[in-house]
Amino acid sequence: MLHLKKTAGLALTVALLAGTSAMAQQRTLVFNTDTSDPAPRAAFDQLIADFEAEYPDIDVVVNMFDHEGYKTAIRNFLTADSPDLANWYAGNRMAPFVNAGQFMDVSDVWADAGLNESLASARASMTIDDKQWGVPYTYYQWGIYYNRDAYAAVGAEVPTTWDQFIANCALFKAADIDCLTTGTSALWPGAGIFDYMNLRTNGYEFHMALTAGEVEWTDERVRNTFAEWAKLVAPGYMTANHAAIDWQDAATLLVQGKAANYVMGNFAVATFMDGGMTEENLGFMPFPEITPGVPRAEDAPTDTVHIPAGAQNVDDAKLFLAFLGRADVQTKLNAALGQLPVNNQSEVGTDPYLTAGFDMLSNAYALAQFFDRDAPAEMAKIGMEGFQEFMVRPENLEDILQRLEAARQRIYN
Amino acid sequence: MSITPSSQPSQSWWRRNQQALTPWLFLAPGMFMFAVYVVWPIGESFRISFYDWDGLGAKEYIGTANYTELWGDRNFVTSLKNNVIWLVLYMLAVPAGLMIALFLNQTVFGIRLYKSLFFFPFVISQVVVGLMFTWFYAPNFGLLYKLTEWLTGSGIAILADPDLVTYGVIAAGLWPQIAYCMILYLTGLNNVSADQIEAARLDGAKGIRMLWYVILPQLRPATFIAVVVTVIGALRSFDLISIMTNGGPFGSSRVLSYYMYEQALSEYGYRMGYGAAIAVVLFAIMMVFISGFIWKMVRDEKGGY
């Protein structure tokens, strides 16, 4: 009797649970996101409030992850407990999930919402096997941020060519100012420098071929890139001890005028401003030309939203992606993020660094994502360690290139 | 009549084997946990180390290719070398802990406070220790950097120097480890027989000879435990490296446990098979020490006290 009761109770519980989940499935949208920093968090709260206002019967449930922890968590939740929407990045960074069948093909959203035209600039980096796998909503430019006071202190002109840049470095060195600062404790800031050295020395096509594993790392053209880079490293124009410095600490050096230039992404502007810089003394310029005549390509990492293959509520998730791709939505979202909208009908805010970046990217020959998004993860890690080693021990170059080449042969086959 | 023979044997079987079975019954929960959370994962690591697997897609059997690759992998050799450096230098915690314990083993006013202060680094989290030493070493504003800058004119940034970084991290690790060894010796010193010391004193022993021939033999159990925890602490060093250097600059401060984590689980990793192969090697190294310790303990128990 007791046994019977228990079973009946259990059955009831199961029925109730099934009932609630069936009801929940109808109009709930589970969104896993890594926008844990204050500004992105506020921007996404607003985005979701706007979406819910437009579709009142859909309830968006947000699971907020820590920005760094998300990068490992996504592998677990995609396979174990799939949300309906998830943040991620474009380019090769999404390839493992696409190839493992963890992301859903959303080409129909692109076609139906006219995204092929309005998001044209990011289409290539969202496409694998002629299909689109997510919707990009923001990107930002990389370039050189510089301290105008430091330039004035040594009487240097803002350079437009690489030779002028190097000539300035001698002036800065004499004044005991780091010509180019970076903090490679987390490795990736060094990859930004490599991207630009290679894009400016050999051009976009070569850079893409190299990150796609089609060119040997011991190639003469790669050596040319490092030869140009050595002009900075060998005379000690870069910040010493950068290997133990975070990018934020290097930003402090720029703020304090102990460093003149910094190859960084636009997200660093907030850090410079917090440190006390103003539009008066914080300047921005595209990375100068190295090989004359090479078309100017830029790094512009793109952030995206995807539908996992295990999503429960695919229809509403696709509604959300179409909403996210819209021009007015991207205008508002990026105004709050302080970044650039991908939609070419969106408007850019009045922030001088954003408008400068927007002009630069609009006129760019092509856009690269970033070394760790263009190259596969494993190659990215080995590469970035090599770049860091080169900046500490430039004499090890041959050894570094041999190692990268060995890694290329193993990783891409 | 008909019931008794059928129930009798089962009851008497339990009676007969009660004594032998009870310990196993009590051990069962523990053994179950050990099997599920220790033995089975070890077996899985061995199995996965023969596959090429990114944690998402299909596993591909590649035989011993992961181990062959390890053999030629310079990062692996660096990690192994650093593990040896860790093992050797970490051992300094044992004599250092003994010295502090001898120094603190006296009855003066406020000795409890001094003992607590010396024990303090062991109580705080390794993460906090790592952060404090990172700031201590930090280029441009760290105390050590400023000090060396003042002394020699150019500051030394230990964590940015591929040749010094491992020693810098070990120094941070030694701070709490010395405190741990000290507390082990302090408890040991409580049990040192006063009669023997008195007898030795009457025989004219003092200073180093007293320590070496009278005190230390009595501290052997404490020394054994101190060595065991220090060896294990050195081999599983991970948190400090993760906090202070992330294995850098360019991998110079990696140890096996950190390299395993990087390959298998970090942002750019997800080579589960390769990570598992590193884990197997680390396990083999640990087994050498662990079997040694167990062998000694069994021998001591047989020898009897």
Give me the strand/helix succession of chain B.
Answer: HEEHHHHHHHHHHHHH
Number of beta-strand segments of chain A: 13
Q: Which runs of chain A of at least 5 residues are low in confidence (pLDDT < 50)?
A: 1-25
> Total domains of chain B, how many?
1
Q: Structural class from helices and strands of chain B?
A: mainly alpha
**CATH-defined fold name of chain B:** MetI-like fold
Give average pLDDT of chain B, whole number: 89
How much is the average pLDDT of chain A? 88
Round the Cα radius of gyration of chain A to an integer and report it. Answer: 24 Å
* Biggest interface pair, counts: A-B, 36 and 29 residues
Are there runs of chain B of 5+ residues with pLDDT below 50, and where? none
Major β-sheet profile of chain A = 5 strands, mixed
**SS field, number of helical segments of chain B:** 14
Strand content of chain A: 5-15%
User: From the alpha-carbon coordinates, what is the Rg of chain B to the nearest angstrom?
Assistant: 26 Å
Give the CATH class of chain B. Mainly Alpha
Number of strands of chain B: 2
Q: What percentage of residues of chain B falls in helices of 4 or more residues?
A: over 70%
Largest sheet of chain B: 2 strands, antiparallel
